[in-house]
């Protein structure tokens, strides 16, 4: 909270260096991770169950998907899905002319790429590693470092690097989740002020933080069952209702046509976007936004891995990964399809000059302007704010749950961290987020998100290596190999037997053991 201007300057300089010098690293780690898990789910390893053969999932598919989606996605998607496309049409990639028809098409698609399959697949690495150790190897897991097999030991260097990884995880979660709240509270405050006339001041922000704290306290005391799971259901339904209303009363045909076009563009541009480092020229908005989001997703990776793993016992690796892509990636893409499509339609038709509002008043004013165009705007605003609070509460409650697990003394199997520990992390999140609000600025939030995930980029390869070693030595895979080997032996013996019979028959014919008609005459 002290030295805001100087801090912002330092952070922006660091962000410029990371984006310019290490953008290739972000790109490659996501590509490698994506290809690795595509191979896993298409191979025999995808059928490995996280648990014993008789284990059944503790949550139904919808409940599981709701918890996965709600935990990873905070209120930022309700905000950025309206604003991001407006940035892209001003500075589109691939040499596209700004504000052209092609620029509008790309702008509608680009947010879906940054929140789509490539992003969600990053959560698979810690999820599968932790889930396998937890439910197949039956070893306690409290932190991400427990999933890196080369660090499992008591040698000094192993203890040292485990501590380093754990510190990076805590800093990453703090940076990612804290930055999310720091981004969202000022926007909610501004939108509330714009639509109701309540002064947008420090007091209003303190009231909003107090409401969040009350919600957090309730869910933390309830824990996973009865708290986070109930909040997740509310999260999904408020989001579905809000999106359905916008789609129904908005330019429905335009949104559906835009999304159909975006799916084709996403398939066509997937590889170029995944390797978009721009070595010859100045990085454009698309590349900078992708680096920002890749850092943000990496900061969420550790706590999402532990959280999803804890609720995935009884599911196969294939079910977990495909479920994440279905509920997570498709869920996020629907926000950009509908809310982003609506913003682009307002701009394209001249209903509202959102780009002018964005450049002169900021993204909070853009969101207020978009909501003001909807019928029954106060009801829609109330639904929007409720959704934002539920989104935030779910994410931070889950984060506090996971961080308290990281920082607890060894827990018994199935034991949850103490409420005091969980509440401590809730308070820390609130204080840290409030500090970011006081520093202010979207660029500052972007920097925190990008930098929070940067060190974790170097942890991912070790997690992938650990997964590969564990799956290669999995007992069920060994059993399949033994059975296949036995089957090959049986087939080989059958071929030898058939060959022997064929040879005997041929010898019998050549040796005149088969009588001719002349041999039957009587003497």
TrEMBL record:
Annotated transmembrane regions: 25-43, 64-83, 118-136, 160-182, 202-224, 236-256, 291-309, 321-345, 378-403, 423-442, 448-468
Record-level Gene Ontology MF annotations: transmembrane transporter activity
Location, primary (coarse class): membrane
Species, as recorded: Nicoliella spurrieriana
PANTHER family the record matches: HIGH-AFFINITY CHOLINE TRANSPORT PROTEIN (PTHR30047:SF7), HIGH-AFFINITY CHOLINE TRANSPORT PROTEIN-RELATED (PTHR30047)
Annotated protein name in UniProt: BCCT family transporter
Keyword match Transmembrane: yes
Lineage of the organism: Bacteria, Bacillati, Bacillota, Bacilli, Lactobacillales
Keywords from the UniProt entry: Cell membrane, Membrane, Transmembrane, Transmembrane helix, Transport
Family: Belongs to the BCCT transporter (TC 2.A.15) family.
GO cellular component, one term: plasma membrane
């Amino acid at each position: 909270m002290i030295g805001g201007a100087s801090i912002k300057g330092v952070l922006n300089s660091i962000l410029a260096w990371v984006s310019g010098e290490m953008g290739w690293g972000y790109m490659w780690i996501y590509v490698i991770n994506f290809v690795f898990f595509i191979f896993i789910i298409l191979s025999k390893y995808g059928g490995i169950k996280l648990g014993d053969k008789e284990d059944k999932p503790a949550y139904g598919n919808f409940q599981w998907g709701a918890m996965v989606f709600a935990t990873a996605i905070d209120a930022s998607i309700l905000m950025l899905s309206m604003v991001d496309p407006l940035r892209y049409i001003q500075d589109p990639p691939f040499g596209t002319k700004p504000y052209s028809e092609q620029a509008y098409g790309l702008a509608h698609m680009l947010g879906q790429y940054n929140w789509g399959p490539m992003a969600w697949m990053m959560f698979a690495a810690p999820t599968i590693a932790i889930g396998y150790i937890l439910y197949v190897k039956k070893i306690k897991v409290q932190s991400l470092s427990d999933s890196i097999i080369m660090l499992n030991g008591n040698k000094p260097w192993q203890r040292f690097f485990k501590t380093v990884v754990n510190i990076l995880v805590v800093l990453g979660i703090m940076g990612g989740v804290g930055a999310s709240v720091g981004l969202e509270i000022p926007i909610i405050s501004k939108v509330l002020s714009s639509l109701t006339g309540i002064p947008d001041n420090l007091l209003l922000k303190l009231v909003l933080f107090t409401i969040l704290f009350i919600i957090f306290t309730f869910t933390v005391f309830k824990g996973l069952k009865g708290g986070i799971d109930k909040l997740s259901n509310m999260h999904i339904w408020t989001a579905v209702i809000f999106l359905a209303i916008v789609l129904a009363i908005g330019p429905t045909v335009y949104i559906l046509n835009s999304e159909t076009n975006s799916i084709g563009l996403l398939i066509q541009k997937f590889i170029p976007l995944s390797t978009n480092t721009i070595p010859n020229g100045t990085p454009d908005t698309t590349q900078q936004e992708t680096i920002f989001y890749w850092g943000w997703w990496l900061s969420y990776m550790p706590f999402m891995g532990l959280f999803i793993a804890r609720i995935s016992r009884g599911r196969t690796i294939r079910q977990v990964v495909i479920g994440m892509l279905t509920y997570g990636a498709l869920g996020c893409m629907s926000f950009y399809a509908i809310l982003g499509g609506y913003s682009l339609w307002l701009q394209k038709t001249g209903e509202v000059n959102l780009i002018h509002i964005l450049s002169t008043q900021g993204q909070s004013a853009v969101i207020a302007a978009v909501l003001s165009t909807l019928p029954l705007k106060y009801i829609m605003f109330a639904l929007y704010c409720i959704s934002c609070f539920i989104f935030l509460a779910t994410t931070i409650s889950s984060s506090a749950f996971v961080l308290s697990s990281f920082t607890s003394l060894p827990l018994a199997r199935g034991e949850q961290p103490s409420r005091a520990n969980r509440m401590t992390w809730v308070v820390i999140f609130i204080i840290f987020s409030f500090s970011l609000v006081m520093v202010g600025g979207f660029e500052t939030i972007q920097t925190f998100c990008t930098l929070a995930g940067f060190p974790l980029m170097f942890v991912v390869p070790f997690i992938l290596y650990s997964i590969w070693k564990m799956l290669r030595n999995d007992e069920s895979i060994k059993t399949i190999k033994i059975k296949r080997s036995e089957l090959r032996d049986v087939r080989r013996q059958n071929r030898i037997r058939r060959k022997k019979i064929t040879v005997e028959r041929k010898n019998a014919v050549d040796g005149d053991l088969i009588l001719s008609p002349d041999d039957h005459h009587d003497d």
